[in-house]
Amino acid sequence: MPSEDHANGSDSVDSSRDSEQSTLLASPELQVVEAERDGFSAICPDCGKAIGKSRGGHELPDGRRVHGLACSDCNNVIPGTCHAEDAPHWTDRIRGIPVEMRDGSTRLAAGIRGEKA
Ligand SMILES: [Zn+2]
Known about the structure:
two-stranded antiparallel ribbon, binds zinc ion, extended, 117 residues, single chain, 4-stranded mixed sheet, mainly beta
């Protein structure tokens, strides 16, 4: 019986193929950002596109919906600002909800109350 200790490094080397999955898709994760201003126009902070026409309901990464702006090119959502939870300057359907922004800060955003029935 040839019982030699043939430690033949049979550690199946997985040749870990770190095939860098070319995630070149222009849309990374949905990000919640602040708009920038160009005169009267709201512009995307990343690409500078005017986004005023995107005003409406948009979904946050966590599934909540806010009223605000968005840049589809950058996958950015720019929620409208609320200054209080009862959002007195908005309609009944809007209330202030705390939203975490891309920079880590949290502010009240114009959350859309309830689901569209
Ligand atoms: Zn953009």
